[in-house]
Prior knowledge:
The chain has 267 residues and is an alpha+beta fold. It has two domains: 4-85 and 108-159, Sandwich (Jelly Rolls), CATH 2.60.120.280; 174-266, Arc Repressor Mutant, subunit A, CATH 1.10.10. It has eleven helices and eleven strands. A six-stranded antiparallel β-sheet has the order 1-2-10-5-8-11. Strands 3, 4, 6, 7 and 9 form a five-stranded antiparallel β-sheet that branches. A hairpin with a 2-residue loop joins strand 1 and strand 2. Helix 7 packs across helix 8 (199-210) and helix 9 (214-232) packs across helix 11. The model has no long low-confidence stretch (mean pLDDT 89). InterPro entries: AraC_XylS_family_regulators (IPR050204), ExsA-like_N (IPR054015), Homeodomain-like_sf (IPR009057), HTH_AraC (IPR018060). Residues 172-267 form the HTH araC/xylS-type domain.
Amino acid sequence: xxxxxxxxxxxxxxxxxxxxxxxxxxxxxxxxxxxxxxxxxxxxxxxxxxxxxxxxxxxxxxxxxxxxxxxxxxxxxxxxxxxxxxxxxxxxxxxxxxxxxxxxxxxxxxxxxxxxxxxxxxxxxxxxxxxxxxxxxxxxxxxxxxxxxxxxxxxxxxxxxxxxxxxxxxxxxxxxxxxxxxxxxxxxxxxxxxxxxxxxxxxxxxxxxxxxxxxxxxxxxxxxxxxxxxxxxxxxxxxxxxxxxxxxxxxxxxxxxxxxxxxxxxx
Length: 267
């Protein structure tokens, strides 16, 4: 059974699954606050892997790539609730409360923590909307997002350096970024945005650094990693082809034979 993802109101999303479900790569354009109601989420990102256990709150920062695997609890159900802390609401909140930040957040990229009573009760207060016992008006939805902001700042005032940093993504080290994120199956346009470049600027810088187009380099990089996993780690292609950004197994086998002149079983 495929996982269900339902938008309760425009910025509140409820995810549910009854068996292990591998999600697709996602570009996270806005900060969001999430709560693992049941089961656990395994999140793969540029800095490694993060396991979000049951009854844990997670604050996920914007402008990054994440791939998830959802695992139901022993009772057989996976549930995750997330609320987007959109830029417009955060900017309005900052103006009203005269919040100005001078330094960027220096802590870990991924933030997850045991919820205090306030955050726990906050997510419980959202359950009537998930169960469709109550319908949220736009005004009420806005108030719930503001409440989430208040509770986050109450739990850790340093979070203001994350939430109210409205600077545009700066030009990242392209070589380092691509070597950390090549396995994500997203568009070249997304890679350009994440590195703080226009599409044309990204392609120009990419060719200067790698001597190849993005699509050609991604294909070669993924196939080289596949060769390493098969030959030296004794792994089967069926177990990792999705994790390396290939969309289907037959295409992977074709590309592999085309590059190395051998099938995976001949390696």
